[in-house]
Amino acid sequence: MIYFMFATGIENSYPTIQGGRVRMDEMEKCRHYEFWKKDFDLVRELGIEYLRYGPPLHRTWLGPDRYDWSFADETYAELRRRDIVPITDLCHFGVPDWIGNFQNPDFPGQFARYARAFALRYPWVQLYTPVNEMYICALFSAKYGWWNEQMTTDTAFVTALKHIVRANVLAMQAILEVRADAIFIQSESTEYFHAENPSAIRPAEIMNEVRFLSLDLNYGHRVGSEMYEYLMDHGMTRGEYHFFLNETRKHHCIMGNDYYVTNEHLVHPDGRTEWAGEVYGYSVITNQYYARYGLPVMHTETNLGQGPNGDEAVKWLRKEWANVLRVRNDGLPIVGFTWYSLTDQVDWDTALRENNGRVNPLGLYDLDRNIRPVGQAYRDLIAQWRDVLPTQSVVLALPIFPPSQQQEPVLRRVESGARERERRSRAASAKLIDPNLEGDGT
């Protein structure tokens, strides 16, 4: 039996801005490099066993097959000693300077080599988010012009998206070669676009299809004819599209849904958007995503500022938890919840577009590592609900083991069985797939 995964995360975004001259390293801004041992103490103080965490890619990945594992060696050894289960986040909104940006076609293959090297060095790690929020990363970098390549065209967006998702797929394959029972939790922003009036219905409908593209490609879900034409018109080839259809590792995945008060948008007739606030909420939108992909679900990110009265974040936590219970009562296999992040963040009030050094009170703790009211509320919630929400093993084909059990004989048998199932699955797929298959996405 697997118990519900209550989690938090260490904010480790590191996109570049100002034409690549400034890197917005949240681990540095939030002083995690200085206080990482204290941060792990805080995780345990809250009663949390799962941590979204990953080494800073730009400091670790120095070049092709060149790595500096010094910080990762220290932190991962400590996570293992404390029996904290890392959900390892390998790429979070940025790449090293030598890669350049997400327009680089060499990124996916090189990143897969990095993922394999990580898995070989830390074979006890089982849970991964290879690339965080693939849709948001491509959107902010190549359509909105905020980060990294800072481009603003559909062709740049499709190019970034296909490279990012291909990197995620190849990384999953590389990790599975090392760890056959690995599980991938795709932390992805769940969005919805509301039409302001009848004239805005058409642009809203298009945006509501684009929001699915990253997961459609990642899970090998055939896109509709309009999205197929969109992809083909803006730089994706038929061969690239069929790569995504044929190389899915969906059966190793949990669909991670991120939801904030900014995830729903009001669409104007000219295509402009603005935040709509919480209209549908997490449970309604998660049901839409589950209906499309049919995968186990985890609420992988949410937060809200503490507010002038000091209780806004606590109220939001209670609302999101009520939505999680609503999803579960609807019969969806939801396996976890995450308040993101452990500490306050810096400069997310401008979506990391400006290097102001402004602290955003979004964490369970402030940057002096003092607990916030939402931290106390989350600690109480975990204590009250931890043993009430077991997740039956039928939800996940592969059980999750804490670091302290990673060398147990039963785990080796599970991994051996997973490797054999993967071999049979790939053999069956090879028989079904015509390598010369052509056609549209319908």
TrEMBL record:
**What protein is this chain from?**
Glycoside hydrolase, family 1
What species does this protein belong to?
Answer: Deinococcus aerius
What the entry lists under Gene3D superfamilies is as follows: Glycosidases
Q: Which SUPFAM superfamilies match?
A: (Trans)glycosidases (SSF51445)
Keywords tagged on the record: Hydrolase
Q: PANTHER family, alphabetically? A: ALPHA-L-IDURONIDASE, BETA-XYLOSIDASE-LIKE PROTEIN-RELATED
One of its GO biological process terms is: carbohydrate metabolic process
**What superkingdom heads the lineage?**
Bacteria
Tell me one Pfam family matched here.
Glyco_hydro_1
One MF term in GO for this entry? hydrolase activity, hydrolyzing O-glycosyl compounds
Q: Where is the composition biased (Basic and acidic residues)?
A: 410-425
Region labeled Disordered — which residues? 409-442
